[in-house]
Amino acid sequence: MARGLTARPGTVLPPAVRARSSAGPPGRDFVLVHGLGASSRYFAPLAARLRRLGTVHVLDLPGFGGAPPPAHRMSVGDLAEAVHRWVTERGLVDPVLVGHSMGAQVVVELLVRYPATSSSAVLIGPTVDPAERTAVRQVLRLAQAVLHETWTVLLTVGSDYLRCGPRWFARTLRSMLDHPMAERLPAVAAEVLVLRGERDAVASTRWIEQAARALPAGRAVVVPSGAHAVMHDHAAQVADLVGRHTGIAPGCVPGGDRRG
């Protein structure tokens, strides 16, 4: 049994996540969780910035990033269990959990189930807006988001979608829609920064401000001119916001702060 884990006989552990870690100076650990259809690759610019503040771990959830999909559909809760298992195995103490899009749901579910895991988290372009909790709406929003992304993001995420495949994408989309994100937020004890890019077609300002108000310790921020993958093309600004949120690296992003 992996360090820090205990299990009753017959317990089925969730499929494992894949991870790459980059050591930085002594400080906090940052755990980055990607969204639907994507992989850890689009976190590269943000990971490079956060590495100046501590050690960065970028995860690939089961079925993504080239990892074979499990035989069964995984709920957001299952994905949260897989991430928690990995954090526990590594013996990380109070890491900063950063989730993008569906990864934000995974982070929230993990914190509800295991509140002692982390005292701070960042939700970037979180899904799912309860006013648009249908497959048709979400697919349309993703299509609209494409119009605002750079070619670098499109090529990276596009190739990840192909590796993921339509069957696993559709299965995980259903899990994403089934997860009651808005209802789970009030149970999160950690201090949470909720942010979006100004041109994000998936997570509106109205939704992230609603999410921030629902959190016991939440704050909403809009990054000017950013799109859904704001952490890729505005990595410096997002890293600065993460640093300020965690108290590691005070800074300022003019015009980008809106409190929920």
Automatic annotation (TrEMBL):
It holds the Pfam family Abhydrolase_6. Residues 1-24 are annotated as: Disordered. Keywords: Hydrolase. One of its GO terms (molecular function) is hydrolase activity. Residues 30-240 form the AB hydrolase-1 domain. SUPFAM superfamilies: alpha/beta-Hydrolases (SSF53474). It comes from the Bacteria. This is Alpha/beta fold hydrolase. It comes from Georgenia halotolerans.
